[in-house]
Amino acid sequence: MVLSRSVDEMLAVRIARQLVEASPPADPSDAAERDRAAARLGACRDLIDAAQGRILWGGFNPDQGYDPRAYRLDPDSPIEYFQLTEFEPSVWARLYLSTFMFPGTYEVRQEGNVVVLALDAQFRSDLLPGDYPYPFWHSPNKWTAYVNARKVLLIFRSGRLVASMRQSPPPEALNLIRRRWDAQWSWTDEAGLPQPRVALFSYLFSEDNPHVAALDASYRALEEQFRAQNCVLCHEPDNRSRINDLLLLGYPNQALVMRRTLVTVLEANEMPPGSSLAHAKPGLRDSAVQQELVRLARIFERDADAAMAYEQLKRASRPLQDD
Predict the structure, then answer these.
(1) Under a CB-based contact definition with an 8 Å cutoff, are residues 82 and 51 in contact?
(2) Which of 27, 138, 180, 218 has its CA 20 to 30 A from that of 129?
(3) Is 194 helix (H, G, I), strand (E, B) or coil?
(4) What per-residue string of b and e applies to 101-138 under the rule 16 or more CB within 10 Å gives b?
(5) How far is CA 166 from CA 86, 146, 155, 169, 321, in A?
(6) CA 145 – CA 123 distance, rounded (Å)
(7) Per residue in 306-320, pLDDT tens?
(8) Which string of DSSP letters, residue by residue, matches 93-150?
(9) What's the average model confidence in pLDDT over 129-136?
């Protein structure tokens, strides 16, 4: 007797076939092939639609398992644990998922209350620094894990793609790989171009998208205020504050996911968080600064929604990929 597959399992198989086609093996230093893979992945309607506007991404820890809720732990806990970062799905697909190549082998299985799609994968380890979403090598442990990643896991629950994780061998089984880092999260290259290039709106959006210029201006105005209030320090990739479901504020593309919640958080004055040690309450002390951030956040949300809607219409107009 053959048991019928669940909706999650059928969705996982369909997406697996599309990812294998979109990002096949290539020279790990070939930036042009990576860019082509990024464009194809960003156009995978099943993949993007299944995430429903939000996806979590990070390293898989066998002690924490496959349920992303296990990666949300007390930030004051003394134990070491993996945390996940929150992204807009097309940003994750184009910037992060595209750094992996898929030879074609995969497995779909039930793990507790989730369905796991485990794809064999190879990391594009020889790209130029600006071809990565941010300097993964700021942490030798993270860079070593990325370079040695052998699988990408996609986690499905109730018809939704809720998270994705890169799976590497245990750290003790790996030799540490170091890549020189100058402690700059962003920089300008020798040609005077801002880097990482893939973190810019010009990498994510179509050249004919009429909303990108306004979006870039509204993001830069908001980012300037974030930096003035030291918000970015807690929302950088090293996650020194151990934030659950980390949001990256210092990069244009990565910050897009915050457009849905930022106004609400700022209006409630919930950031920065309070400190139990210092008995400090959360929120900004200057109401004028708070209101200015709310104003800028509304403009950013409006411009981001317009740019994203334009891309969604273009994606919907393309023919569905064959299984």
Answers:
(1) no
(2) 218
(3) strand
(4) bbeeebebeeeeebbbbbbbbbbbbebebbbbbbbbbb
(5) 15, 7, 11, 10, 25
(6) 10
(7) 999 999 888 777 665
(8) IIIIGGGEE--S-EEEEEETTEEEEEEE-EE-TTS-GGGSSS-GGGSHHHHHHHHT--
(9) 97
Note the pTM of the prediction, 2 decimals. Answer: 0.90
Nearest to 299 by CA among 233, 235, 232, 220: 220
pLDDT of res. 271: 77
Please, what is the Cα angle at 278 between 275 and 281, to 5 degrees? 50
Q: What pLDDT, in 10s, does the model give residues 251-263?
A: 999 999 999 899 9
Instruction: Check residue 278 and give its pLDDT.
Output: 46
CA angle 78, 254, 246 (to 5 degrees): 15
Cα gap 228→238, rounded to integer Å:
20
Q: Residue 181 phi/psi, 5° resolution?
A: -130, 135
The CA-atom distances, in angstroms, between 247 and each of 60, 80, 263, 272 are 18, 20, 14, 13
- What is the three-class DSSP state of 296? helix
Q: Which of 50, 87, 137, 128 is nearest to 253 (CA)?
A: 87
Give the side-chain half-sphere CA count within 13 A for 70: 15
Is pLDDT above 60 for 9?
yes
Distances in whole angstroms, Cα of residue 213 to Cα of each of 204, 216, 314, 315: 13, 5, 18, 20
